[in-house]
Amino acid sequence: MARRAPSPEAPELSSRDREILKDTIRAFIVNGEPVSSRWVARAGRNQLSSATVRNVMADLEDWGYLAQPHTSAGRVPTRAGYHLYIDSLMSSRRVSRRERLQIDETVMTEAGGFDHLLASTSQLLSDMTHQIGIVVTPNLGETTLRSITFVNLTGCKVLCILVSTGGFSENKVIETSGALDREELIRISNYLTDNYSGLTLRQVRNRLIEAMSEERAKVDRLLGDAIQMAQEVLRDGEGPGVFVEGTTAVLSQPELADLERVRLMLGAFSDHASLVQMLNHVIDGAGVRVLIGKECDLTSDLDFSMVATTYGEEGTGGSLAIVGPSRMEYQKVIPLVDYFGEKLSQALERAFAGGTDV
């Protein structure tokens, strides 16, 4: 299906043009089928004939706002058509009281730490929109260490529980060079917490590298073990994580009747590292961004859209997004994403200010 940008010669749309474009886009969002001029003429409020509507739709196609998949088919919106609809045609919608209460209950009262909160948020994003919900965690490398605890499992396996400001936690099982008893692990935990709490995780890692070269670490077995174990925990723990929910929620939509597109979708959302990289690349600054089709690597091959925003402060915040077929209900999704971002920012601010778990 050809998707054209608006022609530089496209005139200012008349109120009739805009009404027909809006009716066409709304019908396509609801039904997922190319929209005929006859349908628009019947559903419209302007009492226009099917022939008049057809001529206007042909103009809108020439100007790049609509496309015709097949000669005998109706029209569908292009990226430019969707953006015009989002920017100036669709009526504003506020998040309903019921939705606000549901979000507030999840974001402001969620127990179990920030990771649990973000996982619940991605699930709720998906549940409320029937699309794919994505939440990227803040960059842990820039958060401040509160405590580090080692717990003996079996043999040489040890569980490390690393907690940073705001209740961000990283649990990791590591293998030590030799068995360590409970008292030794407590001493190591206390040493690392006493000496490195208050530093960002990135600073901790850098100081551990320096400490490894010191003569004391070479002769003090306990100190050497502490440094090596902490380095093992922090090796992969600095970058942001991601929670993805709802990939099965979109499988019933007609856009995914093609098995090849299903394969592409599942592949795109299973590669979490690439997902984080793409989101960080396209989300800049405050506010909600809407990226459609080829405007983003994540949505390009799928012909999907992404509605995304950031939360928290720049450098220590994260991002969240709704991703799904381009005919999503932007009127509902955009204010929901904005509200989720606002509430997560408040939760993160409260966590950093109080130094307690969310």
Short description:
The protein is an alpha+beta fold and 358 residues long. Helices cover 49% and strands 16% of the residues. It folds into three domains: 15-89, Orthogonal Bundle (Arc Repressor Mutant, subunit A), CATH 1.10.10.10; 99-139 and 240-354, 2-Layer Sandwich (Beta-Lactamase), CATH 3.30.450; 143-234, Heat-inducible transcription repressor hrca homolog, domain 3 (Enolase-like, domain 1).
Characterization of the model:
The protein has helices spanning 15-31, 37-43, 50-62, 79-89, 97-109, 114-129, 182-196, 201-212, 215-219, 221-234, 259-270, 272-282, 297-300, 330-354, and strands at residues 66-67, 76-77, 132-136, 145-152, 157-164, 168-175, 242-245, 289-292, 304-311, 318-325. By secondary structure, the protein is α+β, with helices and mostly antiparallel strands. Helix 1 packs across helix 4 (79-89), helix 6 (114-129) runs antiparallel to helix 14 and helix 7 (182-196) packs across helix 10. The longest helix has 25 residues, at 330-354. It is elongated and about 90 Å long.
